[in-house]
User: Fold these one by one.
Assistant:
Number 1:
Amino acid sequence: MDKILDVRNLQISFKTFFGEVEAVRNISFSVGKSETVAIVGESGCGKSVTANSIMRLLPMPPAFYKGGEIIFNGENLLEKTEKEMEKIRGNQISMVFQDPMTSLNPTMKIGNQIVEGLKKHKNLSSKEAKEIAVEMLNLVAVPQPQKRINQYPHEFSGGMRQRVMIALAMACNPQLLIADEPTTALDVTVQAEILDLMKNIQNKFNMSIILITHDLGVVADMSDRVIVMYAGQILEEGTTDEIFKDPKHPYTQRLLASVPRLDMKKGEPLYSIEGTPPDLYIPPKGCPFYDRCDKAMKICKECMPEITWHSKTHYSRTWLNHPMAHGRGEN
Amino acid sequence: MEKALISARNIKKYFNVGEDILKAVDGISFDIYPGETLGLVGESGCGKSTAGRTIIRLYEPTDGELIFNGKNIYGLSRKEMREIRKDFQMIFQDPYASLNPRMTVEDIVAEPLDIHKTYKNDVDRRNRVIELLELVGLNEEHALRFPHEFSGGQRQRIGIARALALNPKFIVCDEPISALDVSIQAQVVNLLKDLQDKLGLTYLFIAHDLSMVRYISDRVGVMYLGHMMELAPSEELYDNPLHPYTKALLSAIPIPDPDVQRNRKRIKMEGDVPSPINPKPGCRFVERCSIGKDICRKETPVFRQIKENHFVACHFVQ
């Protein structure tokens, strides 16, 4: 498959008063054309930092790129000037944020917010841009788009605002959409509608999506491949089926077991992972999940596990799958 | 059948908003039995949190009765109310906002003890605090720290310790886990279940996460715009939902299993939740209902028992 985005050995840190926080620690992944890749993990695992770093939206300082490359269509985004980035943002790569109320401008009419990007990137006249804005609102199923483009964000409900956000992100027909927890602030019924909408738009425009979420149900619904992040590192990556049916890393296994399922039998115990993720001021030398892992071995504390490939698309980073662990990695 | 610990009868809570009336909770009735967990679910704005707060009289009710141990607590004076409050406690959603950042954990947990003067001396107070902290999986060391030194899950444990301080019989848990990470949610839910077994607590568990509610609750009530739509034992409600709203709501929840999720059919609902300000008479759900007819617009369906322990408010459910 053609790669549209290739992240290689990316390292991002934040300088703070207390020292350096290593938020993203040497991660590599790629996104293919019209593919949906989900990044899952708990708060603080670095998934949003990764997303924002692709768009070069991190405030610098305190953030800085310690190393790595972000290759988008053959070009390294980290070498672009701010001017060049402006041409890519909203045009070739767009983003949908978690909270549609804070990410839309409350003092601007919805229509103008969509038109703004179109005029900047596509050199359209106001009239043409406005026509496209109406078309986009129509596409995301906002009723009465002619009337709605003249309204302000506060006149929309939460679900409608998120539709507007998607229309805004889609207006310039980007190749890659980064959706950072796009449905976390919404009710389940609205969430289902927004996810359906994103799938439809993706099919229509052959767009790639990076979906950032902590909701494993949403992942199962949307994604082709899954990346599991923990404490700034990728612990496992595979196709959605591989991750859900045959998780290899204890963290992935425990995470899946700690979510109650609607089709679960009564009385089945809910697994809980004791403890909390490690402090990234002093990142652990070995596996970051060591403290909370019930299968931990001595070596896990000392060295970060190497990558073990389970199939062409599936790898994990755990010593349990090493030949010397004598099959302790099996469930 | 066992006697109910709490019987809510036709509870209403209206708010005045300018010249209009916002009917947040509009006549809900249910019983909660000793030692059980009643889950309350619904979308945002459906009145589930208002219901929780009105039940323990944090909001003055507009109408209705709440019978607790044979007494209608809505008729009690301030002084009597204060005495009976010992039996009701609440755990809040946001563990960052519900703990005073300028108080130590010891003072936070001991505040209910201070108010009701349940200890003889400082040693007594401190011992009780330590006992409570240990009960929720914290320890003595934590007593002299401040809330900002704790993670979200630990803060929620402090909130739980405070709620347990006076040995309550009944606890309203208002979205106690929705601000927490997945792996921490399971910790807190398992703690709540253990405490229930150990101390014989009764919970009203309010949440919008239906899978978690199903897991923790014995019975579940579904609310929509201030009305109770359906109430049934949790297995029954999830296996055999009768109300069209419950069906649509359940079908919208993504299941973390790609095979199951790919083959599910979702029941679509039209439009958004209407405003609870000056609602129209009739069934609240009619505008978005797939089987709504004229009668639904005219008459509010009666909340009635269809099968044993299964209550529904819909004209078309037989």
Number 2:
Amino acid sequence: MRRVVVVGAGPAGMAAAVCAAEGGRQVTLIDDNPEPGGQIWRGETEGAWFERLQRVRVARLPSARVVTGDPDARALTVELPDRTVTVTWDDLILATGARERFLPFPGWTLPGVLGAGGIQALVKSGLDVRGKRVLVAGTGPLLLAVAALLRSRGANVLGVAEQASGASLRKFAFSLPWRKLWQGFELRRGIRYWTSCWVESAEGRDRVERVRLHGRGVVECDYVAVGYGLVPNTELAQILRGAGTLVGECNGVGGVEKSLIEGQIAGHAAAGNAAGAARLQPELDRARKFAASLDKAFALRPELRHLAQAETLVCRCESVTHGDLKEFGSWREAKLYGRCGMGPCQGRVCGPAAEFLYGWQPSSVRPPVLPARVGSLLGEQHE
Amino acid sequence: MRCRAKWWSMFKFRVDGREITAQTGTSVAAAMLNAGIHTAAPLCGMGVCMQCRITVDGVAHVRSCQTQCREGMEVRTR
């Protein structure tokens, strides 16, 4: 029987695994997290896709990191907490999701400065925010969802600082279907929302105590959640040189609806159900149109390029500052001579920042895509 | 509400020798912040940035945000 391997158990990966398994394929679902759901459904166990995933036979590899892969051998090297296994595929579906874009500003390395999606993920995995003063900042519709979640968990949400202008957001709002517009209003109800506003700096002794907002002065807080949109995780796809079908956020950020549709289409296709895949095409076109309008409305303003000071770290792993990077002309140069992007995160944080700050295009990705145990690379233990 | 602790799902583990309490299903990163520990503090919260790496029961380079608390686990932050 053809073996379908799905990497990533967020909405796209779950949909792909379910549809392929319902179509009679043998499916393995690999995920970095202990439980399925990805970032958006982290900590949840109920819902139509969770139920469908329960009902089908899918071999699950949770807490598993795909460290490298070989497209010729059709094999992935997967690190589990206690061992390394090789997983081979006939059909491969990559649903590796997206990460947040962080932009450096003075004080962004203080404990308590988190991503917007970051604090959301932490709250969903047990962070207690009751009574905590939290400022949410950055850009995109995610900020409202994060503020609403924080408030529902008892946090004192000080406000949402959105860098996009009011004019740009109004244009975006008019382009939305009623249902989405209503969703936005519901989320925003009772939350202070400042447009053309961003965090200029954060201060504190051992952790963040206050932040300076553009045009709004200083705000005292316990946590700052800052995220400047999402960046697709394409590293694994790059080292696999085109093997596999990309679905969900790693195929272009567009939200949960687009992810579910793309996942289903890939799952049906892997199960040989061309009709099932074709039926979803009109829905996919609509979802992709919405994704394109998001990009335009929440484009980053140039002022954000000037927040970092000479001594502000850009690459946190290797302690490379904005000042250090001024002598380099490309990402490759900054890596080779400045060690930028050479640390444990392998440029996942500073890469997208450098792309925006300096206009550098990241150079090619090389295996392993994540820090790996030497034994994994030596090919110890096979499944 | 998930964050409201229930005594029957609470247990203890140690971070740099200090005993902290956590609830089943809580990540180590969340439990450490809840206890006011700000060393190896996370940034991304989703396993990408590697800022929250800790040593768990002698195993180094474990991401606290992607690891669930277990009773009796020994965490070192440096």
Number 3:
Amino acid sequence: MTDLPKSLADNPRLDRWLRFAGGQVHVTVGKVEIGQGISTALAQIAAEELDVSLDRLTWRAGDTELAPDEGSTSSSLSIEVGGAALRLVCAETRALFLAEAARLLNTAPAALEVENGVILHDGTPTGHDYWTLAPRVSLARDATGAVAPKPRAQHRLVGTSTPRRDLPEKLAGGGFIHDMTLPGMLHARVLRQPRPGATLAAVNEAGLAHHGARLVRSGDFAAILAPTEPALCEAVEAAAPRWDNCDAPTPDMAEAAWLATQPADVRTRGSDAPPPAGPTHEATYSRPYISHASLGPSCALAHEQGGMLEVFTHVQGVYPFRLNAAQTLQRDPESIIVRHAHGPGCYGHNGADDAALDAAIIATLVPGTPIRVLWSRADEFAFSPAGTAMQTTLRAVLDDDGLLIDLSATITSGVHVNRAPGRLLASRTLPNAQPLPPPTESSDAYPGAGTRNIVPYYDIPWRYTHHLVAGTPIRTSALRGLGAVENVFALESFLDELADRAGIDPVAYRLRLLSDPRARRLIERAAAISNWADRGPAGTGTGLGLGFARYKNKSGYACVVVQVEADTGIRLRRIWCAADSGLAINPDGVRAQLEGGIIQAASMALKEQLHIDATGTATKSWADYPILRFSEIPPIDIELMDEADEPPLGMGECTMGPTAAAIGNAAAHALGLRLRDMPLTRERILAVV
Amino acid sequence: MTALTVNGMKRESASPPTTKLLDVLRGEFGLTGSRFGCGEEQCGACLVLVDGAPVQSCGREIGTLGGRAVTTIEGLQDHPIIAALIAEQAGQCGYCLSGMAVAAAALLARTPAPTRAEIVAALDPQLCRCGAHPRILRAVERAANGMPR
């Protein structure tokens, strides 16, 4: 038997994935649409293997009642693992139906084919189709993975730029969880505990009735309920909660350097041999705390009725959330149904889980009343988990030609994995709250989180020490690219510094250290499309810089080249990206993910930082947290490498680190000065000058 | 009671006059296409047209709109920008797109053949976090090519 992809090994029953009824194929999957287009790409895979048209597919994703448990939609694994599982399920199901049709027709399965669900023999309909045969073919059986999917040459849908299936509804005024209503629902908002451990001393409950609102409370968990959203907002203002026992963080805690002063869990991996003797080069790079800054704030609906709690949410994983909620609410997971609904762009562990837990807790406090929770923009900035600040120090040993022969890294980081039961916001405010469990992030497990991509893809011995700081001043968790954004920024900046020191062109320097032929072709292609050969000298005010990585050293490859103009500020002039996704299920979808990652990483590298004051996160609005705008985004040229005979690779995160690094390298080329701390702002430039 | 026109239809809002237009549209009229993004007139997700001019509906009180004509994304379904946004696949999560479409419609009404710089200037107040900007710009250009001149 083949090694099944994890999604299929965990959910082997075919009928957990597929059902044929009413002329439709009802597909249920665990990987959810979070703005990345996965529901379209997975539909292409299913329709391809089943030989049906896309409009024959009825899709349901992320539902603990109906859909398989595929964990979380994260880590660029939805195509690699979820898609691989669905491909095998559909190939095997098609084979089962063909076998049954062959038996009925007294012919060989190989003599039959499927056209849009209809079984053909020598091109002629046989009177059988998936739906007439469905009563005879039981899918209540485990997948074997033994049926080979279609070879690439037979693909009709896979490899085409099929339009996104979810966009029309979203352009017609609907499509989001924010648009859902439940009969008789009340609008609710939690009075957010301003700091961990703070205790609720007083609420102006008398001021609520005027707004038709009321308070529900359990320990330090307090929420306002109101009949309408505007009434709720006014009532929350009127509630004026007073909290005791708030610690008072200081602005310096917002800097990565502060982390390095903190107690940490320290682990080391890599080469046991000490670094060899030779010339050395050392540098330290950093990034600050970053906000997901989704355009819409977190939202959830919940309804407790007849012993069952139903929750609608835009979390990345409905099953992990159900476990989390069950533990916090101290009830059987089977008494909770969690259903995914589309939310605003999700780039990792944002506030969705917290909002869903808010709604779930409130619903259990007012059984029979459906509850809708929508966070304010200020709460979204202040309380959704941030991407952690990080600091990465690299130390190279060089040979006589200045080539890197040994790399040691020291990473200091808050946690990137922070969704364990008990760690969501509301959990710690309930009367039965358990002590905060320790973070579950491992320094060792490949591909790591804070350590992600610190292992160089170049052919050199390496070792790293990871200082994992649990006590960050603001709560942190996974944000697009995790540690790879900072680590690739550091590593690829460092390589340019080494190339400069050796007097070798940065592209040539990388190619001398890199053996993977796909990576070499990719970098050469990026250099070609960006006219790298005409790059010119440093310090002219115009710069060209490059960054390369293979995400997690096993997923999508990206090489980004950026042209900037720089003086007391950095302006993007042009961006090129060569990317290798293996077989692209949906090439335009891959391009969209690459473009989006490039723009988001550029925004982070140039502008973004969460600030801290005595109240906690000082950043409360878009005015405090500028992101890249239309006028700041240059033309972007994407080149997809032709590696379509290779398995498909996840592409959502692979451009993040390379883009940040390319901007840093381009700025260094333009200015003749190296900026090592993100964001690369005017203040940072002036500090170096 | 505030009487106004929404997407060509006479409507009356029973909300208090200080209620924000966005809350009336979403909560009272059930028109959910205008999105709540910040409530502070900073992101543009709630953009609508008031007598043809772009207005962030989260900041505009319903009581100021008596007799005015409001157009939301629901009222722009036949505008070329909708088909253009789909043709360019100009959305990732799609949450910003209502505002983008409204901003584009306002621009194209006053400047049917805008330059790239004019499009950028018109859309610059609108935030997108997924990085769909290049596609949105192309969609506005595509829509302009489909506009009556």
Number 4:
Amino acid sequence: MSDSQVRTVVGLEVHVQLLTATKLFCGCPTTFGKPPNSQTCPVCCGMPGVLPVLNRRAFELGLKAALAVNGDIARFTKWDRKHYFYPDLPKNYQISQYDLPFCVGGDIRIPLEGGGEKAVRLVRIHLEEDAGKNTHSDTGGDSLVDLNRAGTPLLEIVTEPDMSSPDEAGAFLETVRTMMRDLDISDCEMQEGSLRCDANINVHVETDGKVFKTPIVEVKNLNSIKMVERAIAHEAQRQYEQWKKDGKVLGQVPKQTRGWDDAKGQTRIQREKEEVADYRYFPEPDLVPVVVEDAWIDAVRKEVGESSSERAARYQEAYGLSKYSAETLVAKGKAGVQYFEALRELGVEPKAAANWILNDLYAHAVGRIKAVDDLPTPPARLAALIGMVKENKLNLNDAREKVMPKMIASGEAADVIAKRLGLEVVVDTGAIDGVVDEVIRDMAAAAADYRAGKEKALGSLVGQVMKRSKGKFPPALVNEALMRKLKG
Amino acid sequence: MLITKTASELRRLIASGEVSAVEVATAFLDHAERFDEKVSAFLRLDRKKVLGQAQAVDGKRSRGEALGMLAGVPVGIKDILCESGETTTCASKILEHYKPPYDAHVIARLKSEDAILFGRLNMDEFAMGSSTENSAYKRTRNPWNLACVPGGSSGGSAAAVAARMVPLALGTDTGGSIRQPAGCTGIVGLKPTYGRVSRYGLIAFASSLDQIGPMTHEVDDAALLLQAISGHDRRDSTSAPLDVPNFIDAAKKADGKLRIGVPKEYFGEGLRPNVEAPVREAIKVFEKAGATVKEVSLPYSSVSLAVYYLVATAEASSNLARYDGTHYGFSAKDGANLEDLVSRSRGEGFGAEVKRRILLGAFALSAGYRDAYYVRALQVRRLIKNDYDRVFQEVDVLLGPTAPTAAFCIGEKCEDPMAMYLTDVYTVGANLAGLPGVSIPCGFTSNEMPVGLQIQAAAFREELVLQAAAFYQRETDWHRRLPRLVEETGVRA
């Protein structure tokens, strides 16, 4: 995108499946991957005469999310029916929340690429039931309906259009995922559909002092964070080019819904809404409104425990971590925080612990980190490695670049690896003194320069000693010995 | 004769061993199988199944096991209440062969009280109607005059009880569907307070209005059946978590010395003189017993019918959305695609009145009209409830006619939906406000057609309704009269 100023504007609707044992309005299990229609009962199949009963645990998980994002919790909230005909929705209406969601406002802070952070404001969070799944035959045969998922509790999180790049949308989703996992609200497995996302996208083009806003497009079926990022990048570019072609702006064309085709890397039109779909919302008469008392919120708050920002502040205050380290560590999630606490208990100095976790441990981590065990090496192993560096038994660089990868790969202890690779630092001061004497003799000119007050000359002497020691002498001891001998 | 005995008397006879449950069941079966050829109250009546249940009760008694409060008493079931494995059609083609996989709460209650589930009773399709003419299967006739309707929508239940084919029946009442047919057939029909009886397993017409209730001859029996089915059920979030009073004792109290309100709006235009006269006479019976009677006003009752037809149809359009031919029930053949399959299944599966109400309700909820119709109706519904709340500060019960006319002729109002809807003008208020109400027989027109007296009370005050109704039945004997056609078969009270 060239000539004029082009800004991408993104708002997200995120659906998060809750980690309840049972469905939102019946007692069926929510287990994923069971044989079709084996996790169903008359209620979630929408049989005539059945009635929904609220799963209070699902509501509590919603309250946890509301507290975590500092949203306003509605003290009176109700349920509404949203109507549309589709076979994966057996009642042909979805029980959702229309005009009185249980949580309004709040924000989620996301880290920015170039450092710093940004608050993405939330419009609302509400609870609703999931639909089942249709499987369509490729050969034109009968479609199949599996209602195992029907009635699974979903949180819908709707943001303001506060994200201005694919990266920010990705960061938002990563932050949401960490938050939901840490609070045991959801496991957010995108490939199992427990985190799903629709993106509302347009671009603002500023040219000749005027701003043109392209028509907003809703892109659906985004099943991974990478997909969300790719879809936004593609869609913003497409809209910009479309605008260059026809100059159409927001309000001049009907709202479009597009689907993302990941294989082709493009969005495809799904439907053009002449007007907003008529869902004929009305209050669900089979359920009573939910009244949220202080005591309930307090109990959930206890379960949530220390908030992310409280914890980050405490780490700065109590352990002297930098704001960046403290916030990044906390933002990485519960596993990293627990790892940090474990290192501290093993006597590792807090700043060193944070640095090792953020700079090294996560760099080696692969896949999803749910618990301490998902991090590449146990805290005791890393604590031993850090201890060797601290005690000058190993160079920092060797520790990070040579020992750590081996330790992760083989599961051996740091000292065993260091010994085998011959990286153990020699702390024999006699040996150091011998090499220092040699170098002062061989590099007499540099030694004289230093004695004459040219402090910089020391660097080349140190370098030579380290070279001759093959890096095995601790630099601090080499420095100390050189200065002692040159000044003495 | 066994078939003219009260339910409580039958239960006593069976429990004491004076008669067997099989003898009782056989007596009702023999009469029903013959007489229903005239009346067509039953959609299904399975002799073997009935006798099987009766034998089980006799077995229990002979083993000395404790017997339930309805042991051996036949209860007819409106075909809107789900029973596991039993065809339940709602008198609709769309559920023609539908067998629910579970028992409604009330069915489970009846089973655990050892009642005999005695056949499935006809009704207006999905309980939408006031004459039972909207059944997809058959037209039920009024035992007092076979040319007349039995009222509706619980017309099958009303006709079966009136003709002594069953001593007790369950009906459902969304806008008067228990009380109005009870009035048309000269029996007792009680709609409990919304929330008193669990709706779990009642196939929904309008969820915020539907209630299940007893249809009987005697108020005592209504109290007995209500006692058996009332109480909190956690599967129905709208069922009240309240203790259930002793309705049987309340009926025994039979004290007419109450503060009585007579809503002036119930005696205006449209009320036939041949209905008004017996109702006015009935009020005098209470006055004689020392009741204080005063005229009261329910100003918003003039719009209650309009509010009712918006709220009820809106909810119905949603509740009936699930019948789409893809999951269960009737499915149209050769649907070209999904949309075609759904619209053809619904087009062929639903009757005209059901379609009319779905369209009305969908319209009332649609974007652009919702505020003017549905939301406005909810606001006025609140005002209607306020009217009642105010009046019940001053009086214990309200007395008035159940319907503006006695039972009308078959076909008379079929082509005129508005005339049919007006039948419910005095009954919809109790549904909109969630109140209990009963219709009891209070006399006859010159054509020998029964007239109903409606007694309403404040929410959860069924005891007052029962007490007043039982008092009236102690003072009168309208409820003991038999339709001539029934007498002609040799049945004697």
